[in-house]
Amino acid sequence: MSRRLVSASDPSIKEHVLGVSNIDLLHGAFPVSLVCIYPRPPAGGFHAVVAAFESGLPSLLNHYFPHAGRIVANPRTGLPEILCNNQGAELIVGVADVALADLDFSSMDLSVSKIPLPYGGDVPLSVQLGGFSVAWSSV
User: Fold this and answer.
1) What would the pLDDT profile of 53-106 be if each residue is shown by its tens digit?
2) Domains of the chain: total
3) Which InterPro entries match (predicted)?
C-alpha cells in the first residue's frame, strides 16, 4: 500500500560514521528478519496500528540512530560502514493475501515465506506492517 522513509526526530544528533565489527566482517551482510503476528486489536483496527508506528518510530530511531542511516562502502578500504545520516528507516505498509489460519506454524519456512519481505540491502532497518503482522528486518 505504501513505502516511505522515517527519520529520527531529534535534530541534535549529528551525522557520523560507524565502522562494523570484525564479527560482522566475518559473516558478511545478510538480512535478519523477525516476524511478529498479533491478534486483531480490540479498537481502531489496522489503521490505528499504522498510526502508532508512524508516530512512535521517529522517537525509537533517536535511540537507535544508526538504523536511520545507510550501509556504505568505505571509499578508501572498501569495507562496509554505517553512515549515520538520518536518511531514514523504511516503513512499509502492505496487505498480504494470506489468511492467518492458512499459515502452518510447524513449518515456519513454508508459512512465513508467504509474507513478502521486501528489503533494500543498504537500509539498516526495514519495518513492514501487514494486516496484523510486524516484520523487523535488519542487516
Assistant:
1) 999 999 999 999 999 999 999 999 998 899 999 999 999 888 766 677 777 777
2) 1
3) CAT-like_dom_sf (IPR023213)
CB 62 within 8 A of CB 9: yes
CATH number where 75 lies: 3.30.559.10
For residue 11, give its domain range.
2-138
